[in-house]
Amino acid sequence: MTSPPVVAVDVGGTKIRAGSVIDGVVDHVREVPTPAAAGAHAILDTIAEVARGVIRDTDVSTPDGATPAWRVGIGSAGVIDPDTGTVVSATDSLAGWAGTALTAEITARLGAEARAVNDVHAHALGEASSGAASGTQSSLLVAAGTGIGGGFITDNRLLTGRHAAAGHIGHLPVAAAQGLPCPCGGQGHLEAIASGPAVLSAYQRTVGEQDPGGPQVPTTRELAELASSGDVPAQCALEQAGRALGSALGGVANVLSPEIIVIGGGLSGAGELWWAPLREAFDAELIPAVRGLSLRPAQLGQDAALIGAASLWSTVRESTDETIVTSSEEP
Ligand SMILES: [Zn+2]
Question: What domains can you pick out in the chain, each with its CATH number?
């Protein structure tokens, strides 16, 4: 064992998933619903209970009978300050989560040291340590699903920024989303046209106009199936979303110049009807200096966030904004 045994926890709006991570290998995974409406204490108690179960299931004793100390690594929904381990802000999907002293509360419950980052940041760290971006010095992970989030790693460090909020790619203003409301309260942002719920809304707007009694498609997976079976409104909704995301990512690539861009999240499983316009729009935006930069699908699936959260205790570490100077802080 080259790093301490870590119980890694992925805290999302609908489920909490945890597992042991030893030398980068995920095992003893447990998954429970998030008591999202019950408040921060109920969520913290559930995290601790699931983590205890993972620790109970995992034998880490060495041949000489010693038991190394467990560490806890958490990737959580919301803006998480990795230096203080607190939840800076969170959406209403996790009631009372904002302001929670996440790592301190978990250490108090488990008696083990804890570190935490945002869940998409954990996903980025995971893909960088042993997934699609392993072996690179700089990578951008984009998670396109219910929302659109990102995590940028440069010189093997995660960029979190002055407010721990770096990576909110979903809130880039894009022309195609002009006038559309965004879940953040603003409008015209990428998420308003390219997230999973936005794709479904676009589809329903089109079929509703054509036929008020037309088919209702409740999930992006079903919409993707409909699109591949030749349904034109479903194809248009996916294409529009892929194109908007690709164009925005081309712009981001021009700003950050990463070695690789990795795309995960539910929409990345939507097939070529989404990927092809995404790649085409992406390539069209690139300046000559970054041309040839590749977009690759994420490799680790749900385990990425667990591997990334565990990596907070090993080589790839979180950092503050020390590698990029923010102009607003300059005299
Ligand atoms: Zn927004």
Answer: 6-125+304-321 (3.30.420.40), 135-298 (3.30.420.40)
Distance 145 CA to ligand 1 centre (A): 14
Task: Decide if 35 contacts 46 (C-beta within 8 A).
Answer: yes
Strands 157-159 and 317-319: parallel
CA of 182 to the centre of ligand 1 (A): 5
pTM of the model: 0.91
What is the C-alpha radius of gyration for the chain, rounded to an integer number of angstroms?
20
41-75 confidence digits (pLDDT tens): 999 999 999 999 999 999 888 888 888 899 999 99
328 pLDDT more than 50 = no
Measure the CA–CA gap between 214 and 207, rounded to whole angstroms.
6
Going along 112-243, which residue ranges are E strands?
114-118, 139-144, 148-154, 157-159
Report the Cα 259 to chain-centroid distance in Å.
19
* DSSP states of 10-75: EE-SSEEEEEEEETTEEEEEEEEE--TTS-HHHHHHHHHHHHHHHHHH-----TTS--PPPEEEEE
- Give the orientation angle of helix 232-256 with respect to helix 220-228, to 10 degrees: 110
Amino acid letter for position 235: Q
The span from the CA of 233 to the CA of 204, in Å, is 9
**Maximum Cα–Cα distance across the chain:** 72
Comparing C-alpha atoms, which of 103, 153, 94 is closest to residue 129? 153
For ligand 1, the distance from its centroid to the CA atom of residue 191, given in whole angstroms, is 6
The string of pLDDT tens digits covering residues 15-25 is 999 999 999 99
* pLDDT digit string, tens, across residues 299-325: 999 999 999 999 999 854 444 444 333
Give distance in angstroms: CA of 152 to centre of ligand 1. Answer: 19
> How far does residue 247's CA lie from ligand 1's centre (Å)?
17
Which protein residues have a CB closer than 5 Å to ligand 1 (ion)?
A: 171, 182, 184, 186, 189
79 C-alpha to ligand 1 centroid (Å):
14
